Structures are given as structure tokens and as C-alpha cells.
Amino acid sequence: xxxxxxxxxxxxxxxxxxxxxxxxxxxxxxxxxxxxxxxxxxxxxxxxxxxxxxxxxxxxxxxxxxxxxxxxxxxxxxxxxxxxxxxxxxxxxxxxxxxxxxxxxxxxxxxxxxxxxxxxxxxxxxxxxxxxxxxxxxxxxxxxxxxxxxxxxxxxxxxxxxxxxxxxxxxxxxxxxxxxxxxxxxxxxxxxxxxxxxxxxxxxxxxxxxxxxxxxxxxxxxxxxxxxxxxxxxxxxxxxxxxxxxxxxxxxxxxxxxxxxxxxxxxxxxxxxxxxxxxxxxxxxxxxxxxxxxxxxxxxxxxxxxxxxxxxxxxxxxxxxxxxxxxxxxxxxxxxxxxxxxxxxxxxxxxxxxxxxxxxxxxxxxxxxxxxxxxxxxxxxxxxxxxxxxxxxxxxxxxxxxxxxxxxxxxxxxxxxxxxxxxxxxxxxxxxxxxxxxxxxxxxxxxxxxxxxxxxxxxxxxxxxxxxxxxxxxxxxxxxxxxxxxxxxxxxxx
Length: 494
Hints:
Layout: H1 4-35, H2 38-58, H3 65-69, H4 75-110, H5 117-123, H6 126-130, H7 136-142, H8 146-170, H9 175-198, H10 213-256, H11 261-285, H12 290-317, H13 319-327, H14 334-342, H15 353-358, H16 362-387, H17 390-416, H18 426-450, H19 455-477, H20 482-493
Helix pairs in contact: 1-8, 1-11, 1-20, 2-4, 2-10, 4-5, 5-9, 7-8, 7-11, 8-9, 10-14, 10-16, 10-17, 11-12, 12-18, 13-14, 14-17, 16-17, 18-19
């Protein structure tokens, strides 16, 4: 097994790629939301919503197969497995593209937006190019080459910025121009991903793997079932708000209804690196791996709590300011959706899926998603009928997500044979949340209400004060942040 320092460095590279990708994505959204009116921007976001939802269905859980199978085999067999999964993804991409082209009319009617139909037809080539590009993170994390994953993520977002945003801004393009640009960028992503996917096994003689197409699908199909329910979960509030409140309110919702991006980056980065580590440990040691896995779990959890909680509290306090700075004054109400969504980030401090899959918890994972989806849809429909509030729809989604997380954590606690409460560092959580909240709300009140600074100076000044006083607090309480960055400093010295 790679040492802990190596794991931290691998997470760092994945995180760097995620940050750069997010920077280009948010820049694209900022520019497009200012260039398009709310109705056109809402339509563009609906297309992205349809695509992201259906991608989960059509990929059959295959992107996760790389990090499950590759740690168990040598590179010769790995080359065969990579080719097999890529061919399946390419076939699924073709099917999805045909679905988009011929089903555009039905999708437009379902979302009550006829202006979706033509852009969706133009968009139909995107799945054929993008589905085979998925799963690169599993390959690169298995072979400890996540710096190339960072490079790939950055390149793909540069492609999108150049192909989508630049033509729209400088050539006064329309939604169709943006979609055509998106298709071109997806082709560039496809070519780039094929190169990087084969890089770790380049020059290795291909050997027929012990894992057949049947074995691969046997692993991924249960994940696909969970993914089907996951689509309903992820798209329920988007569907209800899009259908019952119109595309202008959907535009407000789309910009604000997101968990803190940096949280997702950190969680996904750790999951990407730890997934093959968990698989290898459990595969080689069985039950004897429990103590080592639990130690690693607690270490990762403590580090992510230290990083994530101060960020979440800061963004919760300045949610409305952040939305205005990013998207403009007309998206001020997006801050309400942002605040509601941020609540769930207190519970998503570590991803449970990699460990669940490593200990064969796929069936439980499926059941939680199935019952969770049914409960969520029923509750959100009742909220629509009884209260007719898009904010309550979003709040319902958050509460249900917290419930699903609790069930997943209970399964993991059972695996470790410890009480659920012992999975979490409660003392550390309280030592971060309480002083963070006090410092940031007092500093906001000082700069916004008393000194009445403008938005930019308020958030910068509050951030500086927050950083100074929270740093002093952590020093007094002995909360160690140096251990998080120490492996990176060692790497730099080398």
C-alpha cells in the first residue's frame, strides 16, 4: 500500500484539477448568465440538466469499474479491461445520442419548454463523444498518476471556454452557437481522454483479462440500478421547479442550488484516490484490513472537517453576496437556494461509496437510493401542492439527502463493529463550528451594517478578519492544520 503521504499528494493533484476545472466552469457561467437573458439562460441550464441526468443512466455505472478492477490485476490485463470498458461506453454514447436526437420533442414537452427541442437536436452528438471520456479518474488514481488527471480537467474546461463562451460573447451568438461550441469542445475532450486513458499502460503487451464483459457488467449493473434512482434523486427538485415555476425561477435555482463547489472537489478528490486503496486492502486482507481502513477513514474525515467546515460557514453567511458577485444583481435571490444547499455540506464531509463498494455493499447502496428516491418524490410533490414554494422543494431535497447519508454511515459503522457516533470527531466539529460562526457573523455585521462597505470590500475584509481570528483560535486549541499540508511541502522540497 502507498504511504499516507503519497495519498495526500495524490488527493492534492486531483484537487488542483478540480479547482482549475471549476474556475473555468464558473467563469463560463458568469459570462453566459450576463450575456443571455434569464429565459435563454434558463433554457441553456435545462439542457445541461437533462444531459447530466441522463448521463448517469446511460453510463451503467461503468466509470466506477476502473477503480474496482484495475487494482486487482497487472498492467497487461488492465489494458484489456480498459479497452473493454471504453468500447461499452462508446456504444452507450451512440445510443444516448440517438435518444437525444429523436426524443428532443418529448423532452421539450415534459419540461414545458418547446424552445428546448432544436438545441437538443444540435446537442445530440455530445454524448457520443463524452461518454467514452468518462472514468479517467479511476485509471489515474489506480496508477498514482493524478497529476495527468489535473492536466486533463484543466484542458477540457479550456476547450469549453474557448468553444462555447468566446463565440457567444465576441460573435454575438445565440443558444445554438453555444451548443455547437459545446459539441466541438466535447470532440476535443474525447480525443484527449483516449490519449490519457492509455498512457499508464502504454508500451505494455495486452493480455486477455480474467474479467470478461459479463464480469464487468455484473459489477456495474447493480450500480446502474442505484444510478437510476440517483437520477430521480438528483433531478427531482430540478424537474419540479422547472415544470411548475418556469425557466426564469429555474435560472435562479440553477445558479444558487449547488453545494459548495470546494467541498465537492475535496470529497471527490479523496474518493478518487481512496477507492482503489480500499479495494486493494479488502481484496488482499479481508477482515484483517478493518483496523487499518478505519484508521485511514478517521484520518481523512478529521482533515476534511478542518478544511470544509470553516469554508461552509463563511459561504453560508455571505451566500447572497457571493451570488450577486458571480452572476449579477438579478440573481440576488439565488443566495437563498445556496444557503439551503450549504446545510448538507455539514454532513458530506467524506464519501461513503468507495468503502461501501469495496466491502460489497452495493445492494444496500441500491436499496437506500431506491427508497430514498420514492420518499423524496412524494414529499416534494406534496410540498408543491400544499405550499407551492421552490425554496421548500430545495429544503426537502436537503433533508432527504441527510437521511440517506445517515443510513449509509450506519452500514459502515456496522462493518467496523462500532457505534455510529464513533465515526465522527464531535469535539473537533464543535471546536470549529462555534467560533467560526461567531467570528464571521460579527465581522459581517461590522463591515456591512456599521461601516457600510460595498460588497467586494465587505467580503474581502470579513475574510481577512475571519482568517486571522480563526487562525489564532486553532493555535490556542491545538487544532493541527500543518499535518494536512506537510506531505505537500515534503514533495516540493524533493
